[in-house]
Design goal:
Bound molecules: pyridoxal-5'-phosphate
Oligomer: single chain
Strand order of the largest sheet: 1-7-6-5-4-2-3
Helix content: 25-40%
Number of strands: 12
Radius of gyration: 22 Å
Distance between the termini: 56 Å
Length: 424
């Protein structure tokens, strides 16, 4: 029933449906545990023979409502919420890959994802091989018998480049391996990767899903279409001795990936989302469809203003006519290209810092994607540990400022940009 509704309706109404006399909106079930009357019933819960709540590290009614909401928005079969976007990225890979396996990833990914993959996963024996964004020949060369997934970010943070999602999903299908994308910057309102053939979608819900900068969180969405039984995924297919020899694909069919992420990873590693954060994130999602339109409109207007300003040397925003990603953004994001733009200020690092020190309505904050407008200077902040050469390699010029457009009045935002540029 729910799936046929329009996404605007799903934003407001999906996830939680009260029964007669129950609270209209999902209550915050701030309880670690749940009461039962029969020992056999609890044993069945432990054996995954029955679904139900018994301990909040595995599942909780408030978190469950958020999971159902995000699964409905993405059009997936099931979802698992995590403590952060980082936990979602980590689990999305280790749910199917063990030491000795590898994944192939486009190098244009969020900085935290890059270090998780390049350093931490490598230390655990999972090699992550990197290809330049949208270089599918190079990506294909890196695939071998031990490759368990292809990974990409749909709209990249901080450079706002666009993954060619259809080609990415089709390369994974050719090799019968799982495709995973990080859809954080678009949200399912602007783009739904599963409709283009992607298998697994992850989010840092900390960003636009929450949208108010209140709650760190993540979500993994299982598309439910991957044919595990006819592919080489021992963690999903083989008998798991810790669950009395159960095979996730044999027992759970199209939600095998999501069930394993919960039953094994949340159980053993425990980066679970709190009920309070799930509640606040759902409150954010109730207005996602209104906010994303305004974020996209404001970003486009600001990008057009900056493009024509004499103190700006370059503006990157996929919806701009001259942008290198314009064709891809038109194909994939007809409703808008979200709220983040990358701007180079003439005069290099010093000019960029002067600009940041001069903004007043727009605030300096290490955050993107909430209702308030923010600005950040990657070279001296998020990426300050990188050498000048490495900065250039990951596409960050010392003159680059990352702007995250909020939903304030656009004339006020542009006035602030104008006065800050005048001081440079
Ligand atoms: C912020 C971010 C993450 C990490 O999410 P946290 O919730 O901060 O752990 C991952 N991917 C992208 C694209 C992000 O912007």
């Amino acid at each position: 029933m729910e799936k046929k509704r329009k996404i605007e309706t799903l934003c407001v109404q999906s996830g939680y449906t009260p029964r007669n006399g129950e609270a209209r909106i999902s209550p915050i079930v701030q309880s670690t545990t749940f009461r039962y009357e029969s020992a056999d019933r609890v044993a069945d819960l432990f054996d995954l023979k029955e679904a139900g709540f018994f301990y909040t590290r595995l599942s909780n009614p408030t978190v469950d409502a958020l999971e159902k909401k995000v699964a409905a928005l993405e059009g997936g079969a099931a979802a698992v919420a995590t403590a952060s976007g980082q936990a979602a990225s980590f689990y999305s890979v280790i749910n199917i890959a063990s030491a000795g396996d590898n994944i192939v990833c486009f190098s244009a990914v969020y900085g935290g994802t890059f270090t998780l993959f390049h350093a931490t996963l490598r230390r655990l024996g999972i090699e992550v091989r990197f290809a330049p964004l949208n270089d599918f020949d190079e990506m294909e060369k890196l695939i071998d018998k031990k490759t368990k997934a292809l990974f990409g970010e749909v709209l990249t943070n901080p450079n706002v480049d666009v993954l060619d999602v259809e080609k990415f999903a089709s390369l994974a299908k050719t090799h019968n391996i799982v495709s995973i994308v990080d859809n954080t910057f678009l949200t399912p309102y602007l783009f739904r990767p599963l409709e283009w053939g992607v298998d697994i979608v992850i989010h840092s819900s900390t960003k636009y899903l929450d949208g108010h900068a209140t709650s760190v969180g993540g979500v993994i969405v299982d598309g439910g279409k991957f044919d595990w039984k006819n592919a080489d995924y021992p963690l999903i297919n083989d008998e798991d001795e810790n669950y009395h020899g159960l095979s996730f694909s044999a027992s759970f069919g199209n939600t095998a990936y999501a069930v394993r992420a919960r039953a094994v990873l949340l159980r053993d590693i425990g980066a679970v989302q709190s009920p309070m954060n799930a509640f606040l994130t759902m409150l954010g999602i109730d207005t996602l469809h209104l906010r994303m339109v305004r974020h996209s409109e404001n970003a486009l207007r600001a990008a057009k203003f900056l493009e024509n300003h004499p103190k700006v040397s370059r503006v990157k925003y996929p919806a701009l006519e001259g942008d290198p990603n314009h064709a891809l953004s038109k194909k994939y994001f007809p409703k808008g290209s979200s709220g983040v733009i990358s701007v180079d200020i003439k005069g290099g690092s010093e000019a960029a810092k002067k600009f940041i020190d001069s903004i007043s309505l727009i605030t300096l904050a290490v955050h993107v994607a909430d209702v308030r407008s923010h600005a950040l200077h990657p070279a001296s902040m998020t990426h300050r540990q990188l050498s000048e050469a490495k900065l250039m390699e990951v596409g960050i010029n010392p003159a680059t400022v990352r702007l995250s457009l909020g939903i304030e009045d656009i004339e006020d935002i542009i006035d602030d940009l104008r006065q800050a540029l005048e001081r440079v």
